[in-house]
Amino acid sequence: MINALHPRILGYLGRALSLELSAVQQYMTQASLVALWGEQEAAQRFRNETVEEMQHAEKIVKRMLESGVVPSASQLRPVSIASDLVGLLKQNIDFEADLISHYSEAVLFCRSIGDQSNIDFFQDLFNDEKQHGTELSQWLHELKPSQPQTSIQRASF
């Protein structure tokens, strides 16, 4: 069992769980949406993101349980959708930026109290999300030249 955690670290873990489960919900929904559009490759990429975010959530749950805390996601974000793949990717890049910011803040706090174990924990999540953000940006960059300036509206909710 990990030593008792500072209350703010517990807050960072709880918020992280909410964000990661929100990401799972978002990517899972988007995978289904783009599959309906017939974009199976994009659907698979979103499914892969769903799995990665679920693994992050599981890692956080494990950390909380090891600390004697019952995990609970306090609030999931609503799913963000768009009428085309470019719009979805832009929204996801923004979402990843929120995750990156959260983990960066958590790392800084852990440094301020000298909690190396949690510095490492949050830094690993930060690195993973930074990589996700980079991959999404690259995917968007690859799509943009081939996408017309005015895209067909496929879905509006």
TrEMBL record:
Alphabetical UniProt keywords: Chloroplast, Heme, Iron, Iron storage, Metal-binding, Plastid
The protein, known as: Bacterioferritin
Any one GO BP annotation for this protein: intracellular iron ion homeostasis
Organism of provenance: Paulinella chromatophora
Single GO term (MF): heme binding
Domain of life: Eukaryota
CDD domains named among the record's database cross-references: Bacterioferritin (cd00907)
InterPro entries according to UniProt: Bacterioferritin (IPR002024), Ferritin-like (IPR012347), Ferritin-like_diiron (IPR009040), Ferritin-like_SF (IPR009078), Ferritin_DPS_dom (IPR008331)
Pfam families: Ferritin (PF00210)
GO cellular component terms, semicolon-separated: cytosol
Domain Ferritin-like diiron: 3-147
